[in-house]
Design a protein that fits this description.
It is built from nine helices and eleven strands. It is an alpha/beta fold. It folds into two domains: 222 residues, 3-Layer(aba) Sandwich (Rossmann fold), CATH 3.40.50.410; 47 residues, no CATH class.
Length: 293
Amino acid sequence: MLFDESTLRKLNQLALVAGRVRAGGMKGERRSSRRGSSVEFADYRNYTAGDDLRRLDWNIYARLNKPFIKLLEEEEDLAVYILIDGSRSMDWGEGEQNKFQYALRLAAGLGAVALSSGDALSIGFLQNGRIASEFGPTRGGVALPRLFRYLESLEAKDDTNLNQALRAYSIAPRRPGLLILISDLFARDGHETGLRQLLGRGHEAVLLHVLSPDEIEPSFAGDVQLLDVETNQQQDVSIDGGMRNLYRTRVRAWIEAIQADSRKHGIRYLDAVTSQGWEQVLLLDMRRAGVVK
């Protein structure tokens, strides 16, 4: 079990936020701007010949002696796509601060929110430049145990090629919806072009940037040998105060460049450092960022 019943009850009170709700094939629990046939009142308009008299507001007619038709909101489901970076660099950190386990809990929480709202949920697991496996699309709370079993079966391994994997995900025909990428973004060729290709398919995007505290502020010093966990390349470095400051500056510049590119292309960016409780990210930080409400 990725989280307990108490957390699940809190998540069931939330809903994912899309700037423009996509028309779905089934009615869900969110409102669209289109006028339809649900029971939620939206507005009035003047009666015209041929309108369904069952939608005439007789109370208004009795008061004003003018016929008005009630306009109703149509409820639609939202297509939700959660993409998880399963590269070896994600398997970093101990216990609750392991980036991959942290990412899985975020995916589980967001998936629970989507399922409780009646949205159509799909999960894509990205590894070695491809879609290693997929879950869904599925709807409803009854799918939650299957979602948990699927996430718990995943393992971080292989190299990162986010652009290639994202492009591969964009090729298959999918209904436009809310797409959430969970990754540390440690990819030599970046992630931007692949994500833009998905935006070009009509998706709205959220970027959850998962990092470990020691990737932002290294705790070691002196003469050390660094090993790339994906390529096994080694690098001897001497870490003193000057090197540490240079590292901090470059990490901050890298993060700020990602944030700026996200803003430019209408992508909602949220950093998630694993020293934060993942419940706080789901229940507080994502609400402030407008990812959930």
